Amino acid sequence: MHCSERHKIFDKLSGILLADRNRQDTIRIEIFERLQSWLNSAEPKKLVILSHKFFAHAADVASRKGLSYSGVSLKDIEAAQKAIISVERAITDDILYIGESRDVVAMQPLGFLKGLDAVYVPKEAIAEMDAHWDELEKDRNKWRNAYKAELYA
After folding, report:
1. How far apart are the first and last CA of the chain?
2. At how many degrees (to 10) do helices 74-89 and 29-39 cross?
3. CB pairs under 8 A, 24+ apart, for 150-153?
4. How far apart are CA 46 and CA 75, in angstroms?
């Protein structure tokens, strides 16, 4: 990333116009609060509570205080994943300026689903699963820069 691009990004993070820029400028606290709010949104919190109370720790009935398994949906997991990726990208790409080319979903390994038809799924479903992977990969990789519009709003 060129120096001028880094300056433009920092200007957005600091909220300072180019003409008013000086060495004492810092990233606005609102940027960090926004990032934190993404991680503290309902879906990630739901997964954290579920993990702490039912999987990661030996919580007993008293510590769960009537908390019941609320049924985390795949949409909850997707929203939590998007929040984590958005925060990671904002920190890595914009705040720390680590210019690293990477996708959200890695390229599917060749033969990843090979052999599943032997026991688990019908042979024709392999092509459907490959196509579904490709759809998810295309959708998730849009998340790489999706955070920018909301972060700098």
Report:
1. 23
2. 160
3. 150/34, 150/86, 151/31, 151/34, 151/35, 151/86, 151/90, 151/94, 152/12
4. 12
What the block records as the tokens of 32 is: 């960090």
pLDDT: which is higher, 73 or 95: 95
3-state helix, strand, coil in the chain (%, to 5): 65, 0, 35
Tens digit of each residue's pLDDT (9 = 90 or more) over 39-63: 999 888 888 877 776 777 666 767 6
Quick: pLDDT tens for 80-92.
999 999 999 999 9
The pTM for the full model equals 0.71
Contact 14, 94 (CB under 8 A): no
Domain definitions of the chain by residue range: 3-151
Q: What is the maximum alpha-carbon separation in the chain?
A: 66
CA 94 to mean position of chain CA atoms: 15
What does the pLDDT average to over 97-122? 71
